[in-house]
Amino acid sequence: MQIGLSACFLIGPLLYFYVRSILQNLNYSFAKYSLILIVVIISVFGVLFPYKENPALWRGIIYYFINIQWFIFIVLSIYESRQIFKKLVKNRNQISYHETWILSVIIGVFAIWLSYTLAKYTSYISGSLAFSFSFYISFLLLYYVKNKILISSNNKEKYINKIEEKVVTEIQEQINTLFETRKIYTNPELTLSILAKELNIRPQLLSQFINDNLNKSFTQFINEYRIDEAKRLLKESTQFKIDAVGFESGFNSTSTFYSSFKKITGTTPSNYQKS
Questions:
Q1: What is the 3-state secondary structure of the chain?
Q2: Source organism's superkingdom (predicted)?
């Protein structure tokens, strides 16, 4: 009981730091030392007031304190993800897999918190049931994205006839000219069809060029140009906030900008700017 209740102190802070690390720049040193401090305080308190000798204290004040601080960190996590929740209300079709994952984590932790908070009126096992439910939902999301990647890989194999080298060179030169002169990739509404129309080629041909010849998805292809633009702005423009740099580069959400930047460069926008 003491180990279980002590561990519950960490759920809220871990959720909050996890969400912040994905959505925006996080001071990892602050997060690390905060968690170490919490563990030390819990350990010292557990030695001074063990559960066996003070069950009333742990079931009363400690239990309620855990639930309160846990809930506070859930609220803070929701605040950090407020843009995603706005999308959920206004236009859920714009929510990416990445953002769906964040929502599932927050909602899952909230479900576990709610079940443990109401455990005194229902059953303590409800917490375990809520945890199992959240785990299965997370597993299904992971399976979904894996399956989606496999389908995408299979779709790449549908191209039987390869594009001639001359045509490949022409398409690449057209893209270079268009991107250099108009920076069309900074348009957050850019789609494969729109780009194909600008290049005056068939969408199927452009799709084949990106998939077969560049070995990339359309999103990855465009995001690489957007990240290059973001890197330029981070170096040259000090008047922009980092979130604004993401929007100026063509990303339609802060979370997508941060995750894409870290995936491509291996660091966060803030750390890149500092270095």
A1: CHHHHHHHHHHHHHHHHHHHHHHCCCCHHHHHHHHHHHHHHHHHHHHHCCCCCCHHHHHHHHHHHHHHHHHHHHHHHHHHCHHHHHHHHHCHHHCCHHHHHHHHHHHHHHHHHHHHHCCCCCCCHHHHHHHHHHHHHHHHHHHHHHHHHHHHHHHHCCCCCCCCHHHHHHHHHHHHHHHHHHCHHHCCCCCHHHHHHHHCCCHHHHHHHHHHHCCCCHHHHHHHHHHHHHHHHHHHCCCCCHHHHHHHHCCCCHHHHHHHHHHHHCCCHHHHHHC
A2: Bacteria
Place of tokens 């929740």: 85
pLDDT in tens, 96-116: 767 778 888 898 899 888 888
Supply 37's token pair.
Answer: 């401090």
Its CATH architecture, for the domain 165-274, is: Orthogonal Bundle (1.10)
Question: Residue 93 has which token pair?
Answer: 């079709």
pTM beyond cutoff 0.70: no
Give residue-wise pLDDT tens across range 176-189.
999 999 999 999 98
What gap in Å lies between CA 114 and CA 15, rounded to an integer? 15
Which has the higher per-residue pLDDT, 134 or 173? Answer: 173
What are the pLDDT digits (tens) for 51-71?
999 999 998 899 899 999 999
Tell me, what's the pLDDT at 131?
80
